[in-house]
Specification:
The protein is mainly α. It has helices at residues 6-30, 35-51, 69-88, 94-107, 112-131, 134-155, 175-191.
Length: 196
């Protein structure tokens, strides 16, 4: 049996939105992305894509529907692998990796590159906004120097100065906001029919 009603699509869309709002609130207030919320979102996305009527995705404008379990799980695995690499390079926190994994399942493999691009564009805006504050600007520039040295050391035998986003940041960036902003932008692009 399959789920087809338009009402169900909007219920699942609203559920994903509520999860993103609560996750953003937690990341903003406590710099923490709760595992339980990300896990609930991941399971919901996989279940929906595995059970619902076929279509162009959760946020498809004219034929919203499931991409299939393979597309959703491959999107989740690719997002996990790519962002885990960034976590190992100490560029990104573990919660951000898990949130991207969830959203990889929501949007599927075919939209993952665009999702990543939108997330990093939103992250650049977030960094720019934080740099407007003088004290934060100095802390951020110091962290960027440490981050660059850490990334460079991964590829060559340069200085081993390491950047740990959990411990070394004077003003940790709530990157979950950038991830949610990128995902929301992508959903709106799909809903408007700008992309399929």
């Amino acid at each position: 049996s399959s789920f087809g009603p338009a009402a169900l699509v909007w219920v699942v869309r609203a559920w994903v939105l509520v999860l993103l709002v609560v996750i953003c609130w937690s990341d903003w207030r406590a710099r923490r992305i709760p595992n339980s919320l990300v896990f609930a979102g991941l399971l919901s996305a996989l279940a929906w894509h595995g059970i619902a009527s076929p279509g162009s995705g959760l946020f498809g404008s004219s034929d919203a529907g499931a991409l299939g379990l393979l597309a959703a799980s491959s999107g989740a695995l690719a997002a996990f692998a790519g962002f885990l690499l960034l976590h190992w390079m100490r560029v990104m926190g573990a919660g951000d990796v898990k949130l991207m994994t969830m959203l990889g399942a929501v949007f599927g493999m075919h939209l993952l590159p665009l999702l990543v691009l939108l997330v990093f564009l939103a992250g650049a805006v977030l960094v720019a906004a934080r740099l407007l504050d003088g004290g934060r600007r100095r802390a951020t520039m110091a962290n960027l120097r440490r981050l660059f040295c850490g990334v460079r050391a991964t590829f060559d035998s340069g200085p081993r100065l390491r950047f740990d986003p959990r411990a070394d940041t004077a003003d940790r960036l709530p990157f979950g906001l950038a991830i949610a902003a990128g995902a929301t932008t992508l959903a709106l692009m799909q809903l408007s029919g700008a992309i399929t």
